[in-house]
Amino acid sequence: MVGAVLTQNTAWTNVEKAIVNLKQAKALSPEAIMMAHPKRLATWLRPSGYFNIKARRLKAMCRWVVQQGGVRRLAKRATPELRHALLGVHGIGPETADDILLYAFRRPVFVIDAYTRRIFARLGLITGDEPYETLRSLFENGLGSSAPLFNEYHALIVIHGKEVCRKRPLCGNCPLTDECPSAVSYKAAED
């Protein structure tokens, strides 16, 4: 859950550094994060960027988790109810809520992120500017309802988006080149 908040607008490698800082400070629990002085917490989170904002968001989420009786009690809630509650927490939007639901609670909720939009727009399967919920429903209806499948599929999208279908894509390394209408224009630019 901490990672889902910290990964907002930053690379996972930087989030890992912030999490290591929290572990070294023995502050990787809701109670420890709530008790931490805001400036100290922000210092631990510095590698994740936007550290003052993320410190406030992380404190808000931890306070909410504790008020709700902890993660075990939250895990007993139905997915729609839990998602609705998460969206009511300061700093948690749809992508972060779905990230928490999929990875922390192992719920079959598909995460729509910038990589998903970029890859599927380049493939011509979406325009890329559809509302979040429209895309989430599209993926969930198309793939069925399987948290392990969503987890793996999303992880593969992230890897492909980081390594190949970047902002400046490496179409020559892409296994989807034959199916990708965007590949022709990007390959011409590579040459």
UniProtKB/TrEMBL annotation:
It holds the Pfam family HhH-GPD. Residues 6-163 form the HhH-GPD domain. One of its GO terms (molecular function) is hydrolase activity. Keywords: 4Fe-4S, Iron, Iron-sulfur, Metal-binding. Its cofactor is [4Fe-4S] cluster. InterPro entries: DNA_glycosylase (IPR011257), Endonuclease3_FeS-loop_motif (IPR003651), HhH-GPD_domain (IPR003265), HhH_base_excis_C (IPR023170). The keyword Iron-sulfur applies. SUPFAM superfamilies: DNA-glycosylase. One of its GO terms (biological process) is base-excision repair. PANTHER family: A/G-SPECIFIC ADENINE GLYCOSYLASE/ENDONUCLEASE III, DNA REPAIR GLYCOSYLASE MJ1434-RELATED. This is HhH-GPD family protein.
